[in-house]
Q: What sequence folds into this?
């Protein structure tokens, strides 16, 4: 029901009142009380965690010691050195790209190769609603902190894994970045300038497959939170593939290709 004081306003005044930015911190947070543990890197995984934190979730980012995750060292001038990850290290400070991908979070440093770090992760898992990661498929399972281990400690945990080519099948062990997701998902087929005119395919200038994948993964988590809290009482294991995500928003072009070649 609309407040009586707002009822007779013009639409513009109504919007300015309802969406008053000075009162943005007074509004309820949808995910207040939900805890997310993010062991993500680059943009795909961090975007998922960032969207959840913007909705009010308490998000804890876990990184390897000393160097942290690669986005801490990303600038417009050194990005080529990070694909694949090199030994390049900044002299000091953190790249601005990291802050854009990881807002509203707490930070924790753990070496997953050490038994004591694994024990800390297990203690976190027992108190966590959502666990997000985008290491190569099966990495955390081998370390003893994958979904199959999490669910034994916390049956309500929602485990969101994100990668380029899925957690099973021929591409499961391949690392992926936004440009690979765009290329192999088919986005390159509708960008750039056609070769008949002397051109070539081109990637989107923003990391669209990373941010799109983060948004879809966050959407998956929200759906699973609803299902857990209102239907089943149990968590779940979720998988997101960049290639599948790219194809999901190319539906018209896939149909066109099927008809005309």
A:
């Amino acid at each position: 029901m609309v407040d009586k004081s707002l009822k007779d306003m013009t639409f513009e005044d109504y919007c300015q009142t309802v969406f008053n930015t000075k009162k943005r911190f007074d509004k309820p947070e949808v995910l207040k009380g939900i805890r997310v543990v993010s062991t993500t890197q680059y943009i795909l995984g961090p975007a998922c965690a960032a969207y959840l934190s913007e909705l009010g979730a308490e998000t804890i980012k876990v990184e390897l010691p000393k160097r942290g995750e690669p986005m801490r060292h990303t600038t417009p001038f050194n990005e080529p050195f990070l694909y694949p990850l090199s030994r390049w290290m900044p002299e000091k400070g953190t790249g601005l790209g990291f802050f854009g991908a990881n807002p509203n979070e707490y930070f924790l440093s753990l070496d997953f190769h050490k038994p004591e770090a694994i024990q800390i992760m297990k203690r976190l898992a027992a108190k966590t609603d959502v666990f997000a990661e985008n290491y190569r498929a099966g990495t955390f399972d081998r370390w003893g902190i994958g979904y199959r281990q999490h669910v034994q400690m916390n049956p309500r945990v929602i485990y969101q894994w994100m990668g380029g080519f899925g957690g099973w099948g021929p591409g499961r062990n391949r690392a992926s970045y936004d440009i690979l997701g765009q290329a192999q998902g088919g986005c390159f087929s509708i960008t750039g300038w056609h070769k008949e005119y002397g051109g070539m395919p081109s990637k989107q200038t923003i990391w669209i497959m990373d941010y799109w994948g983060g948004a879809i993964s966050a959407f998956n988590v929200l759906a699973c939170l609803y299902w857990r809290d209102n239907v089943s009482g149990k968590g779940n294991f979720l998988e997101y593939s960049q290639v599948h995500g790219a194809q999901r928003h190319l539906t018209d072009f896939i149909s066109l290709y099927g008809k005309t070649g």
User: Anything to note?
Assistant: The two ends are 52 Å apart (CA to CA). The chain has a mean pLDDT of 85. The longest helix spans residues 208-232.
